[in-house]
């Protein structure tokens, strides 16, 4: 997917401007959004996936203005928010099946095939019968990815997915995302950890106080500091 962001600004009702005049072009593959806490990463992502409206500026996804084509855009986008949590007392596979019932028209048999395929893709097939709320933190995050993939999105937007993960889970997570980005899914990943981006992303931007402080390749950024 090609995403063109022009003059994007988000000011909250309390007057705080979280994103200031951001101009970015994002192509296929994996794009990293780096920045410290409060930089505006979550605000940027919420606007991108149309759960929040920008104050100014435009976003074109494959030429479509996201404000004018919200329903269409939502079908193209999968989103994993930072505060994604489960309250459900469902088994892992049941949780995904429930999500699939809400967002697809598939019949039960096809849903179950899809659910197991997604579980396999994120390395959770072995624990499909475990209660979802009993999974480890890393596994829950991976289940979140599986859920975001149910609608077969062309764009996957993931907010700080590796926060709090141990190194092994972190690497596992990166590998899953790398695989996905090679299957024609554009991925935008936010993080405050340089290593999450340098090992996986071709392109990146660094946000600082709502402004783009750097854009280019991760190598280019590391050379600059
Ligand atoms: P990040 O994801 O990089 O931590 P956020 O987008 O969450 O950054 O926040 C950027 C700034 O905007 C922060 O100062 C935050 O407190 C503020 N902010 C976020 N959401 C709101 C909101 N709904 N209302 C007012 N200010 C907000
Ligand atoms: P992050 O961890 O990405 O910085 P925040 O903690 O800033 O995220 O935001 C968590 C939630 O709180 C979001 O829904 C955001 O909109 C809201 N929020 C953050 N800062 C403010 C604020 N200053 N005023 C109102 N809501 C806020």
TrEMBL record:
Keywords: ATP-binding, Nucleotide-binding, Transport. The keyword Nucleotide-binding applies. This is ABC transporter ATP-binding protein. Belongs to the ABC transporter superfamily. Coiled coil: none annotated. One of its GO terms (molecular function) is ATP binding. The keyword Transmembrane helix does not apply. Transmembrane segments: none annotated. Residues 3-225 form the ABC transporter domain. It comes from Marivirga aurantiaca. The chain holds residues 1 to 225 of 296 of the full protein.
């Amino acid at each position: 997917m090609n995403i063109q962001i022009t003059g994007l600004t988000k000011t909250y009702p309390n007057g705080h401007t979280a994103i200031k005049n951001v101009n970015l072009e994002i192509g296929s593959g994996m794009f990293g959004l780096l920045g410290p806490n409060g930089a505006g990463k979550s605000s940027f992502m919420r606007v991108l996936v149309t759960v929040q409206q920008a104050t100014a500026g435009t976003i074109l996804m494959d030429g479509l203005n996201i404000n004018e084509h919200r329903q269409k855009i939502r079908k193209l986008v999968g989103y994993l928010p930072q505060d994604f949590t489960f309250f459900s007392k469902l088994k892992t596979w049941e949780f995904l099946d429930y999500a699939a019932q809400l967002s697809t028209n598939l019949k039960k048999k096809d849903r179950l095939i899809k659910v197991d395929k997604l579980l396999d893709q994120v390395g959770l097939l072995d624990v499909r019968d475990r209660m979802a709320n009993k999974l480890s933190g890393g596994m829950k995050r991976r289940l979140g990815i599986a859920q975001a993939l149910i609608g077969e999105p062309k764009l996957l937007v993931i907010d700080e997915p590796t926060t709090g993960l141990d190194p092994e889970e972190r690497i596992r997570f990166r590998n899953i995302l790398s695989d996905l980005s090679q299957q024609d899914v554009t991925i935008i990943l936010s993080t405050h950890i340089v290593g999450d981006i340098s090992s996986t992303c071709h392109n990146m931007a660094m946000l600082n106080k709502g402004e783009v402080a750097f854009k280019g390749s991760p190598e280019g950024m590391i050379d600059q500091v």
